[in-house]
Amino acid sequence: METKNTVEQKNEKDNNDVLLSTQTVIHKALEKLGYPEEVYELLKEPLRMLTVKIPVKMDDGSVKIFTGYRAQHNDAVGPTKGGIRFHPNVTEREVKALSIWMSLKCGIVDLPYGGGKGGIVCDPRNMSFSELERLSRGYVRAISQIVGPTKDIPAPDVFTNSQIMAWMMDEYSRMDEFNSPGFITGKPLVLGGSHGRESATAKGVTICINEAAKKRDIDIKGAKVVVQGFGNAGSFLAKFMHDAGAKVVGISDAYGALYDKDGLDIDYLLDRRDSFGTVTKLFENTITNKELLESECDILVPAAIENQITADNAHNIKAKIVVEAANGPTTLEATQILTDRGILIVPDVLASSGGVTVSYFEWVQNNQGYYWTEEEVEEKLEKILVKSFNAIYETAQSRHVDMRLAAYMVGVRKMAEASRFRGWI
Ligand code: GLU
């Protein structure tokens, strides 16, 4: 059996370390923009990182202590903003990286926010509804001092949803002693949620796919699309692509993947999906995630978790365009390989920024107490994302850099400038 030597193992670990790769690209972006080293020193880590222990009474009467995090990357531009994920593999370094990505997203789509992110180490798939409620409320009590509608505004992320946002909003409002819908976004409509928020990430990805397809002369009608992940982003996206006339030939979830060269019946799959996005368990003729990523298609959308396209499989990717709906699905080595092979990458910090953009709309509506129609939300989102996509594409062309570095250059500028004007650097 072939084994990897320690140097190879260390390299692999470094390549998969999302914080390290984010810092590498931030450093390059600041260098390209001509900022001095202290700007990098300020931006390479979050300004604030809170680790909390959350005791939760479980249904069997026992008490379990959960670990949670909230990172606030940079609040020079405005309050920090970003989701909360519930996942067994959440780590401090990951939450830090995710908060930096939120800053970049907010910079790219020009929102008056810095980036934040939260996470709880837990497996919501093995928890009851009431255990999840107690955990969500406990987390809000634990981080209450550093969050709030003008400080740091959470939102959904992996394995969290509008019900969890509702419990969190209620807990915060009780502590605050008045109704505070602007504390959190991604709420149900009846509690001040925004039209279009649930599908916003996928809408944003769709807009980016349309723009990228124009650059590569691909007609969406009939284009073969593979979507890895069938959670919030992946499932809505599969539906939008299917409705636009594309052939969604592959989808996957944590249990396996489905492929049909003639196109899958997305409406049927959506109908059969359970609340955690599982659908492949229903089928016997599944393929692996690895096979799915390397399958024949025009457009590949990783919409699941980090480090899916690596130096190991980047040479075998057949797509002409890779659009990152997930956070951090492609390693830096793989980015280089794909770029060298002429594959157009739409990086995560751009492609997945539709979610936070409509979260911003939700917060604005909460603050003014006046609510918009779905058409208004979609029209505003479309304008912002088309503009951001083209700004990044043009930066990549004119500065001869890949799309990821171009996105970081566009995304980092505003917070660097704001930090300078505030006299921090
Ligand atoms: N969790 C989403 C993201 O990673 C949305 C964050 C938000 O809406 O604030 O972009």
Describe what you observe in this structure.
The chain is an alpha/beta fold. 46% of the residues lie in helices and 16% in strands. The chain contains 15 helices and eleven strands. A six-stranded mixed β-sheet has the order 8-7-6-9-10-11, sandwiched between helices. A five-stranded mixed β-sheet has the order 1-2-4-3-5. Helix 13 crosses helix 14. It starts with 5 loop residues before the first helix and ends with a helix. The relative contact order is 0.13. The mean pLDDT is 95. The structure holds glutamic acid (GLU). Glutamic acid binds next to strand 3, strand 5 and helix 13.
Provide a quick synopsis of the model.
It is built from 15 helices and 11 strands.
Fold topology:
Blueprint: H1 6-16, H2 18-33, H3 37-43, E1 48-57, E2 63-72, E3 80-87, H4 92-108, E4 114-121, H5 129-143, E5 152-156, H6 162-176, H7 200-215, E6 224-228, H8 232-243, E7 247-253, E8 256-259, H9 266-272, H10 289-293, E9 299-302, E10 321-323, H11 332-340, E11 344-346, H12 348-351, H13 354-368, H14 374-399, H15 403-421
Write down the overall geometry: globular
Low-pLDDT stretches are none
Strand content: 15-25%
Distance between the termini: 53 Å
Order of helices and strands: HHHEEEHEHEHHEHEEHHEEHEHHHH
Strand order of the largest sheet: 8-7-6-9-10-11
The kinds of small molecule bound in this structure are: glutamic acid
Mean pLDDT: 95
Number of strands: 11
Q: Number of helical segments?
A: 15
